[in-house]
Amino acid sequence: MAMNDGSIATGRGVGSLPRPGAAVRFWGVAYALLVMLVGTNLASALYGRYEVDFGFSPVVLTAIFAAYVAALIPALLLGGPLSDAIGRRSVLLPAIGVAAAAALLFALADGVAMLFCARVLQGIAVGTASGALTAALSELEPRGDGRRAALTATVASMGGLGLGPLLGGALAQYGPDPLRSPFLLEIALLVPAAPALAALPSSARRPWRPRRPELPAAMRSAFALTASLSFLAFAVIGVCLALVPSYVAELTGDDNLMLGGGAVALMLAFSVAAQLLGHGRPAAALESAGVPLLAAGLALLILAGAADSLPLLLAAIAVAGAGQGLTFLAGLAAVNDAAPPERRGEVVSTFYVVVYLGVGLPVVGVGLLADSVGLLAAVRWFAALIAALCLVAMAVRRRYVSGPR
Hints:
Layout: H1 22-40, H2 47-54, H3 58-86, H4 88-108, H5 112-140, H6 146-174, H7 181-190, H8 193-198, H9 220-252, H10 257-278, H11 283-307, H12 310-338, H13 344-373, H14 375-400
Helix pairs in contact: 1-5, 1-6, 1-7, 3-4, 3-5, 3-13, 4-5, 4-7, 5-6, 5-13, 6-10, 6-12, 9-10, 9-12, 9-13, 9-14, 10-12, 11-12, 11-14, 13-14
């Protein structure tokens, strides 16, 4: 699949003059994407506290985490095509309101049922908005640089995923109201996103009706290979977000919530750093570097558990994070560039469906396994399986795809 310079996204070549106000709208959309993903992961460092306060098992914890994905998938399938048809603004403004309602439910939660409801609302909000926000970034990039738009989308996504556990853990550990203040902060952060999205163009594009999602025929095979690698990369993110804080506490015997949240943030920080360093490189080169790094990080994770070593665990998280970032950047850049402009929201949303299935499905399996063999052993088995699949996926790519995309 040939990579282009991004001019497909807007009909303008890279280096053309930016439109007035384009930069403001572009960064406003990036801020909205960042803040929404911060909110969805504020609870990651708090799940251990919820387990104690509400008395549930690791299986229930992973089910709460997966409820988000169960709501997100149909919302993704709806939101991207809908925004292609009626305009980005008409979809994104309601999504911001739903995200604020989810944060309020978390702040008021007094039991497992409210946690489930809050996660479902978060899934609806992020699912509706993800494809539309990413497509809007591609359309609004001031100079029509599709790769820069993809980089901004991935950095905002990974930055939000990383900041959420860190902020949640810090406020829960040291703040005055541990289980409420993180979510009140999220509501405050969402407020500036509303006028930023209200400034987007509002024109309706075409009539819309629900239909079965599909990809343009010309990009299906390449999409399958790229999306499979992104699925594996986000399986690692899903387990990290849901279980690594508890894993760190069990490994070290230290239940400091900021330590667990910081470990998650470390993975996402290295993901962002790797994406910044990889910006501008061909997607095939990014994948060739990213997937082996991801597998190496998972191998180190196994060694860390066997050695009860926190430094080795942190090294594993950093290496896996770098690999995840390069793999995701490669996938999103390739998909974003190859998608027809009139169907970009739909195609990007379909890509995110695969990504979020990676976030939600494997973590449930790890939670079920943890009930039988313990958390440390379950994470080691997961790491071994995903590392092996990464190597298999790269072997398939080398066999069936030749030359840079």
